[in-house]
Design goal:
The complex is a heterodimer of chains A (391) and B (299). Chain A is mainly alpha-helical. Chain A contains 18 helices and 2 strands. In chain A, strands 1-2 form a two-stranded antiparallel ribbon. In chain A, helix 9 runs parallel beside helix 12. Chain A is elongated and about 90 Å long. The two termini of chain A are 19 Å apart. Chain B is of the alpha/beta class. In chain B, the strands form 3 sheets. A 6-stranded mixed sheet of chain B has the order 5-6-7-3-8-9, with helices on both faces. A 4-stranded antiparallel sheet of chain B has the order 11-12-10-13. Chain B has a 3-stranded antiparallel sheet with strand order 2-1-4, covered by helices on one side. In chain B, strand 8 and strand 9 form a beta hairpin. Chain B is globular and about 65 Å long. Classes of the chains: A mainly alpha (391), B alpha/beta (299).
Chain lengths: 391, 299
């Protein structure tokens, strides 16, 4: 077993494609950490003393300019000044609870002053047909998040934490976006030739005293090790580039998960550590499904290109059945490909999109676990046929 | 003991092996000889279970066979197969290959360095295989079998691409393996070399073992050998009474058995051939190359 693992690991690490992929991945992380991440503009920025003073002066100018001509405008400006002064006072006293309470109120008043009953234009996008719902979701998200900082007695609040810029929070944000798909594509590329590369080495590969099933597990372990080592290296680069600027963040930072209950929709708070742990479990299960599936097709079809096409296609299968709000009518959202959107599922955004309350960690484990089991049964049946398993 | 029992294999209408049975005991080297495409490699593939025969079976020590997956793995612990040189991993070094085989079969790499030294591989074994010449690769493939150190070793054209010095080196290693009690089956076209270490040589023809020569018996059976063209042989036969057991091989070589002949008779026959102008007269056993010519030249 150890000898086979060592050989497979050597072949994995000496593979030119894997090496290029590893380097490209690290370069992409480096570029993200140095160039893209600092340009990130959160929906609701942290306003420091200087910003608050400027805002108060601006609103005072509005009051001075309109006087009694525009009573609603001046009233709004007075409110903003009031909340901003509360924020300033809270900042001076390091009273984060008061700061967040005042911030929630200030943000609400500023939004009303700017857009009234209209939708915040930042939520309009070419691919976004539901800007109003999006704004409602993220505004409430901001309020619950700020509330959770003091409700969960989190003591490490910093401006970077508020803007979710720390290393761990950046990872959290990225996982809610397209990062899971990028990672799983890397995994697919790592594993497409895991078995087929033995094609030209039949007398070596077929004469070993190891059961074929075991060899497949060793290959799975090697692909997983290589993949998670790449992730670890990527995280290290991210930490090196963002850590000195914004800090590592803390695993106890509260993060939210959206769901529906009897009272309607709600956000539940959990620690970032627990959230990342759950993300890791879903990533591990998704990886297992993809690697084992690719190995199954490697035995059946023996074509790397086919493995690549099928692997990437499976990743994006969700687009075949996704329809906004479909979760109210159907359980189709429980199909395994839904849970490849790891961060979006764990943060409950998928529940919001599907209008469902079933897209959560536990169902993700069940759905992905069931898919994995089916693949294992198929592999078991397949390797019974000697003709199929020859490389 | 390795037993090949009633093995038959066809590819379409082409019967490659037809009810072949061979028993090989401990410390025996068996040579497999036949022209290309006549079943040598197929037989080795069946012994390794790379190919399931149409009928028949392969057993080791009468207990192990390929009837179940568990037994197959147990069989493989006792069998190793000379890898084809193109099957080596170009990106890995020879040492990594050797360590892999040593660990896989013996859970130890202790014997790897002595093998490297014995086969004079030290100067290249730490380089990637893709930089090796044909002969270097071939030596590595042989070294892999030594590293695996299994009871049964199967080799297909083990001397391919080797210079005479390395052929001698591997020959001496094969003789050592025989002394250690290994069961070795070698398919080869280097027939004179095969005669140096093989206890038996099996000649395959029409899917069957057409001839089996025994080295130990051959030692006793010496011949006076002389090259004579076919027409002249026919004339000679009518003019002279050839001794019993005389053979005319491959329409070229007349072999007179020395068993039962005294030195005067040997001298008489030698002088007779010399007087007829057949100067290429030798005394020795009938070698595999001569049997090969006899069996396959006229096909």
């Amino acid at each position: 077993m150890q000898a086979q693992f060592t050989l497979e690991w050597l072949l994995f690490t000496r593979n030119i494609k894997n090496r290029i992929l590893f380097i490209l991945f690290l370069l992409a992380v480096l570029y993200y950490g140095l160039i893209i991440a600092p340009q990130y503009r959160p929906l609701y920025s942290f306003t420091d003393e200087e910003g608050l003073t400027e805002r108060i002066e601006e609103q005072q100018t509005v009051i001075d300019q309109y006087g009694t001509d525009r009573p609603r405008t001046t009233e709004s400006a007075r409110m903003i000044i009031q909340f901003s002064e509360n924020q300033l006072e809270a900042l001076e006293q390091d009273d984060w609870q008061s700061y967040f309470e005042a911030t929630i109120n200030a943000n609400r008043e500023i939004r009303i002053a700017r857009y009234g009953n209209a939708v915040d234009p930042r939520f309009f996008d070419i691919d976004e047909p539901y800007p109003e719902q999006e704004e409602a979701f993220w505004t409430r998200h901001m309020r619950y998040r700020y509330t959770s900082y003091w409700a969960d007695d989190f003591e490490g609040v910093t401006p970077a934490v508020v803007e979710e810029r720390t290393v761990l929070q950046t990872l959290h944000r990225l996982l809610q976006d397209n990062l899971p798909f990028i990672l799983l594509i890397v995994l697919v590329l790592f594993s497409v030739d895991s078995l087929t590369r033995n094609k030209g080495h039949a007398t070596l590969f077929n004469s070993t005293p190891i059961a074929f099933g075991k060899v497949l597990w060793i290959k799975t372990a090697v692909c997983l090790s290589g993949f998670f080592l790449t992730l670890l290296a990527g995280f290290f680069v991210l930490a090196l580039t963002l850590g000195p600027r914004y800090g590592m963040g803390s695993l106890s930072i509260p993060v939210l998960s959206f769901s529906f209950d009897l009272r309607g929709s709600t956000y539940e708070s959990l620690s970032l550590g627990l959230w990342l742990g759950q993300a890791l479990v879903l990533l591990l299960l998704s990886s297992l499904i993809l690697i084992r599936g690719i190995l199954l097709f490697s035995v059946l079809i023996k074509q790397e290109l086919f493995n690549l096409v099928i692997g990437i296609s499976v990743l994006f299968t969700e687009s075949l059945y996704y329809s906004r709000g479909i979760g109210y009518f159907s359980d189709i959202g429980l199909l395994p490909p839904t849970f490849f959107s790891i961060g979006s599922v764990l943060s409950g955004y998928h529940n919001f999109l599907y209008n469902s309350r079933d897209l959560h960690f536990l169902n993700g484990v069940l759905s992905l676990g069931a898919a994995w089991l089916i693949i294992e049964v198929l592999i078991l049946i397949t390797i019974q046929f000697k003709r199929l398993r020859k490389v | 003991m390795l037993q090949i029992k009633n093995v038959s294999q066809s590819f379409g209408d082409n019967v490659v092996l037809d009810d072949v049975s061979i028993v090989i005991t401990k410390g025996e080297i068996i040579g497999l000889v036949a022209p290309n495409g006549t079943g040598k490699t197929t037989l080795l593939n069946i012994i390794m279970n790379f190919l399931s025969p149409d009928s028949g079976e392969v057993t080791y020590n009468e207990k192990l066979d390929y009837s179940t997956k568990k037994k197959e793995i147990q069989m493989r612990r006792h069998l190793s197969f000379l890898p084809e040189i193109d099957d080596l991993y170009g990106e890995l070094t020879g040492m990594e290959h050797l360590n892999y085989y040593a660990r896989l079969w013996n859970q130890s790499t202790k014997e790897v360095q002595p093998i490297v030294d014995r086969l004079n591989m030290a100067h290249y074994v730490k380089n990637p295989v893709k930089t090796y010449s044909l002969g270097m690769r071939q030596r590595l493939c042989f070294a892999l079998l030594l590293a695996a150190d299994t009871d049964v070793m199967l080799m297909d054209e083990v001397m391919n691409g080797l210079d005479p010095d390395n052929v001698d080196l591997l020959t001496s290693e094969l003789i050592k393996l025989k002394e250690q009690g290994k069961i070795i089956l070698i398919a080869s076209h280097l027939l004179n070399n095969l005669d140096l270490y093989a206890d038996r040589v099996l000649f395959l023809k029409d899917g069957q073992v057409a001839l089996e020569t025994h080295n130990s018996e051959q030692k006793k059976e010496l011949y006076l050998k002389v090259l004579i063209p076919e027409k002249e042989y026919e004339l000679l036969k009518t003019e002279n009474q050839l001794p019993e057991g005389a053979r005319y091989i491959a329409s070229a070589l007349l072999c007179l058995p020395l068993t039962g002949m005294n030195s005067t008779e040997v001298g008489k026959w030698t002088s007779f051939f010399y007087s007829k102008g057949y100067t290429e007269t030798t005394i020795g056993k009938i070698g595999s190359s001569e049997w090969y010519n006899e069996l396959y030249t006229n096909d």
